[in-house]
Amino acid sequence: MKELKADIAVIGGGPAGMAAAAEAERAGVENVILLERDYELGGVLQQCIHDGFGLHRFKKRMSGTQYAQYFIDDLEKSGVNVMLDTMVIDITKNKEIFACNKVDGIIRISARTIILAMGCRERTAGQILLFGHRPAGVMTAGSLQRYINMEGYLPGKRAVVLGSGDIGLIMARRMILEKMEVEGVYEVMKIPGGLTRNIVQCLEDYGIPLHLSSTVTRVHGKNVLEGVTVADLDGERKIIPDSERYVACDLLALAVGLIPENELSLKIGVEMDTLTKGPVLDSDFMTSVPGVFAAGNVAAVFDLVDYVSDSAEIAARGAVKYLRGEIAPDRPLSNVRTEGNINFVVPRKITNNPNGDIKFFMRVREPQLNAVLTCESGGGITGEKKINFVTPPEMIEYCGKISDGRNVVLKVERA
């Protein structure tokens, strides 16, 4: 068994892992190891050839591959030990990582700190209980994206998209550009699940119908998909009588949600947040296990890659502070309270004596016009941010000083 040591070990080579490793190295940590199971860095950005990335960080429109290449170039010039085609199979509470690859076999890495950056995965047909057989032609939107953008395959001629997540919206447009027919996008909720800009640029600009409060109830075909049954839903998400109809198609793309990839986190007993499905984090993005940090879509599903990179750099700076003894494992933490229209916030805990600006990421429950985000600390308002329009798919970022970590209240309400 090959034995390695690391000051910081980063698990995952997508946008979060790359940003975390690069930030740790910039902070002066010499022994940083980045573990990635794929043959190259970039994660899902490898297959994202559309633009819209980097608007916050670089102030320009970039494709996903361009955004990834920036960090790949940064890592190539650094001293980070990047281990590709290396699968992490286990981690322990003592921060030992067990991985394997074809060259080294089994590898044991003794790490002083770990940053979890495994990303997220898509919900599948089985997880949403689609009725019918399992014919070819039913796939997640991310798989479809890889087939078309990386492998050069068109897996169908006439498609239905179930779910209005961003990948589904982007792939609806992509299929039209490849001369496929897209019958429509069906969304079980009464509001879209993707960014407003994607609703406009991917559906409205290309004449693709969006059917809200509707869903696919059955797939038809035993070996190959022949069509689907769709239906309208009432306010309780029950099928409206006589609303079912058959739609002929040979491709069903599923964009029905993302799940943070936290199997490794659970193995070491990390406390999980029931709302985000990711670890409960403090203001340094440290988990409940001292010395283990989390970043990107492992922590919560972000809508913008710029926020993923921001969260990763926060986690990396936290890991550096832990290495330097600036974070006590048993330091007192208090919960961040939320009021009004806020659904969840990351981080959820904060040190009682915060120092410097604290960055929060949050989502709202309901769409709202003319909203104001206020941050209360120590009994008074310490920050305020006015937002013309808030909606659940679009994450809100807030950064400000906190005077008293024991009494932090974040609130979104009508201005």
Account of the 3D structure:
Strand 12 (214-220) and strand 13 form a beta hairpin. This protein has helices spanning 15-26, 64-76, 141-151, 166-177, 196-203, 263-267, 305-323; strands spanning 2-11, 32-35, 81-83, 87-91, 96-101, 105-116, 120-122, 138-140, 158-162, 181-187, 210-212, 214-220, 227-232, 245-248, 251-254, 258-260, 292-294, 333-335, 337-340, 342-346, 349-351, 357-364, 368-377, 380-390, 396-401, 408-414. It has three domains: 1-121 and 258-330, FAD/NAD(P)-binding domain; 124-256, FAD/NAD(P)-binding domain (3-Layer(bba) Sandwich); 332-415, Sandwich (Immunoglobulin-like). Helix 1 (15-26) runs parallel beside helix 2 and helix 4 runs parallel beside helix 5 (196-203). Strands 1, 2, 3, 4, 5, 6 and 17 form a seven-stranded mixed beta sheet that branches. Strands 8-15-9-10-11 form a five-stranded parallel beta sheet. Strands 19-26-23-24 form a four-stranded mixed beta sheet, with no helix packed on it. The protein is globular and about 65 Å long. With 415 residues, the protein is of the alpha/beta class.
